From TrEMBL:
The chain crosses the membrane at residues 21-44. GO terms for cellular component: nucleus. It comes from Ceratodon purpureus (Fire moss). Its EC number is 5.2.1.8. This is Peptidyl-prolyl cis-trans isomerase. It holds the Pfam family Pro_isomerase. The keyword Phosphoprotein does not apply. Belongs to the cyclophilin-type PPIase family. InterPro entries: Cyclophilin-like_dom_sf, Cyclophilin-type_PPIase_dom, Cyclophilin_A-like.
Length: 259
C-alpha cells in the first residue's frame, strides 16, 4: 500500500474527526463559573469605590469614589463662582437630629461659598433625613450624602467648588468642616464634625463652622459604631439609620435667637 500524500492525508483526517460536541453539563458549569467571577468582581469594585481608603488609615476624610471616572460623574469644578457678602449669609444654624439638636456658628467671612452651599442645601431640604453615614470614635461624625453611603452628593452649583482654606481656622474639637475626595477644590455636599482636635486636617479641608451648643449630642453619636470603617446602609443597620439622621435645619441671625 502506497503512502498517502499530504493532501489526501489532510482530507482523510477531516473525515475521521468530526466537530467536538460539548456536554450540556459542561456548558452549565462554565456559565455558573463566569457569573460567579463577574459577581465577585462587581462586589469588590463596589467595596473599593464606596470605601474611604486612601492609604493613610481612618484619620483622613475620604468619601467619594477614588477612580477618575466616578469623580467626573459628579460634575465639573465651579471655581469661578462668586461668593455672597457675609451680610447675606446666616450666622447660626441648628441641626435637628434624631439624637438631639446641634447649634453651629458659621464662618461666613472666611468661607462664604461653603456656608452658602450648606445653607442653601439645608433650606431646600437636601439634608433632611440624611444619615450620618460614617462615625469614627475619637475622630469625627460625617454626613451630607443623600444616598447615605458616602459616595454621592453635589454642590448647589451642580459640581464641585473651590477650597476656602485659611490658617486662622483650624480643626479643633467640634469643628464643622467639608469632606472631599483628597484633591484640591473637590467640595460638594458632604461635611463632618470633629470630636477631637485634628490638626493634620488643617489646610486640607475647609473649616466653615463650629459647634456652640449640643456638643453632648455630637459626643453621644460618636461612639455609636466606634471605629467601624464600612459604610452603614439602610438594609444592614436599621437601628443606626433610625437613630442618627437629620430631621431638618433652622437658621438664625444671633445665638440668643436660636431655640
Amino acid at each position: 500500500m502506497g503512502r498517502m500524500k499530504p493532501a489526501a492525508l489532510l482530507q482523510h483526517s477531516k473525515k475521521k474527526k468530526g466537530p467536538a460536541k460539548l456536554n450540556m453539563a459542561t456548558v452549565v458549569v462554565a456559565g455558573v463559573v463566569i457569573i460567579l467571577c463577574l459577581s465577585s468582581f462587581m462586589v469588590l469594585h463596589r467595596h473599593k469605590t464606596r470605601g474611604n481608603i486612601d492609604g493613610a488609615g481612618d484619620d483622613n476624610i475620604r468619601n467619594i469614589a477614588d477612580d477618575k471616572g466616578a469623580q467626573e460623574a459628579f460634575g465639573v469644578e465651579n471655581n469661578a463662582v462668586e461668593a455672597l457678602p457675609e451680610s447675606h449669609l446666616p450666622r447660626y444654624a441648628t441641626l435637628n437630629t434624631t439624637k438631639g439638636s446641634i447649634t453651629v456658628e458659621f464662618f461666613g467671612k472666611q468661607a462664604p461659598l461653603t456656608v452658602e452651599n450648606f445653607a442653601t442645601h439645608s433650606k431646600k431640604g437636601y439634608y433632611n433625613g440624611v444619615l450620618f453615614h460614617r462615625i469614627i470614635k475619637d475622630f469625627m461624625i460625617q454626613s451630607g450624602d443623600p444616598g447615605g453611603d458616602g459616595t454621592g452628593g453635589e454642590s448647589i452649583w451642580g459640581g464641585s467648588f473651590k477650597d476656602e482654606f485659611t490658617e486662622e481656622l483650624t480643626h479643633e474639637a467640634f469643628t464643622l468642616s467639608m469632606a472631599n475626595i483628597g484633591e484640591a477644590n473637590s467640595n460638594r455636599s458632604q461635611f463632618f464634625i470633629t470630636t477631637i482636635a485634628t490638626p493634620h486636617l488643617n489646610m486640607k479641608h475647609t473649616v466653615f463652622g463650629r459647634v456652640v451648643r449640643g456638643k453632648e449630642v455630637v459626643q453621644v453619636m460618636s461612639p455609636l459604631l466606634k471605629s467601624f470603617r464600612a459604610f452603614c446602609c439602610r438594609l444592614f443597620c436599621p437601628e443606626f439609620n433610625l437613630s442618627s439622621t437629620f430631621r431638618f435645619v433652622t437658621f438664625s441671625a444671633c445665638l440668643g435667637c436660636v431655640k
